[in-house]
Amino acid sequence: MTQSSPRDARQQKLSALRADALRRYAGLRIPAGFNGRWTRRQWAHASLFASIIALLGALVPGFDQALALPTHAPRASMALTLPQIGPKKVVAGPTRKGDSWQVVNVRAGETASEIFKQLDIPQGDLARLLKYPGVNMEMRRLRPGAEIAFDLPPGGPLRGFRYTRIGEKVELDMTGEKIVETAVPQQVDVRTVVLSGTVGDSLFESARKVGLTTQNLKELTDDIFKYSVDFDSDLDNNDRFSVVVDQTWKDGKLVDTGPVLAATITTDGKLHSGFLFERDGKPGYYTADGRSLERAFIRMPIPYARLTSGFGGRRHPVLGRFRMHKGVDYAAGTGTPIMAAGDARVKSVGWHGGYGKAVELDHGQGKTTFYAHMSRFAKIRPGQRITQGTVIGYVGSTGLSTGPHLHYEFRVNGAHRNPLSMMLPPPAPLSGTLLAQFKGETKRALGKIREVENIVFQGEEIRVADAASEKGKTKADKRG
User: Fold this and answer.
1) Is the pTM of the predicted complex or chain greater than 0.70?
2) Which of 141, 292, 331, 385: disulfide with 405, CB 3.0–4.6 Å?
3) What does the alpha-carbon distance between residue 384 and residue 347 come to, in Å, rounded to a whole number?
4) Does 262 lie in the same domain as 345?
5) Is 146 exposed, middle or buried (0-12, 13-18, 19+ CB in 10 A)?
6) Are 247 and 191 in contact (CB under 8 A)?
């Protein structure tokens, strides 16, 4: 037996001391076992727990049964009829024609190719569709807001296609070997409406805002009020206008606006009105009492022009000396059309000294008109008969001129007259059967006008309520 070294003895002594210290530490942390008697604290805990159990048993229904031991109840058996087990059925998607229409409203910047790609239309069906006459062209002309529709079942072929062609809806049936075309019925609604507003800074802009077309505005300025209203100098910002038109709606969308049926415009408190009526097969505009609005001569032979120089003596802008101005000047852009003031025979077309390129028209009964400083002539020749409103040339600045404008003269038996003050007799008014027919046909349009304008008829005068008057109504000037 080998004798242990001092180092080993020291290690054994340290191990014994460590074990003794661990036993003492554990004795302090672990409580002694139950010795058969409860402490006061343990009795208090037991009483509290028993009180809680009693309260739960009294307040909660069924709690006493929940604490009871489970008992075995007899079991009952019931026979059930089970379905036969067969192969799994797959529910097919929609297969009937017309039950899978997808409507697409074209957005700004969107093309037909992008729409076809988004819908994942089979290439074979797409190629077949685009080969159909007219489809490819219409798809290239798609505009924002246009509506197209596809009968395209999920994962299936393209069975139908709807689109608008020249304003009409068309449906293409692609289920057969040949594509079959049918017209899609559309709900068409014609509404007689009155569009009204104030002139503001621009009659053109105000008219477009309320829904009038460019053609409607041309009818106002060139047909109805061209003799009675100078649209450059007579209008103020607060002047009112009201226009009656027929609008055509298809499937809830406005597709067409017809000609002006009736119109009124107020300038300086005076009401001007016009109603469309067909006389001897020729449509024209008349006052509410049946007088024609046509005149032998147009007051302004150039539309939307600005009067820059009146009739009478003035200092010539080029020559610099005082001389008689034998006509009136209208400023307008180069190339603006110039119209014949009335029915006439072309007297001369060519260069007239300081007047530059000019045209003279003979209207008969000693009346002639002269148009100067043109940039070029229209296709007219001396001796040719033309009607009122025919374009005879275009605004320019030829001859002694400081800028593009029209110099316009009116002569009676060679004597110069002021074109703005010429009063020529109008055509004979309607009477008898024609007047009664006119009253009947214009009654509807007149009713629409009265919805927005307070118009009262008294003999041959038309009076309009003046909203700015303190009395509420003032008399308008009698029309001549």
Assistant:
1) no
2) 331
3) 8
4) no
5) middle
6) yes
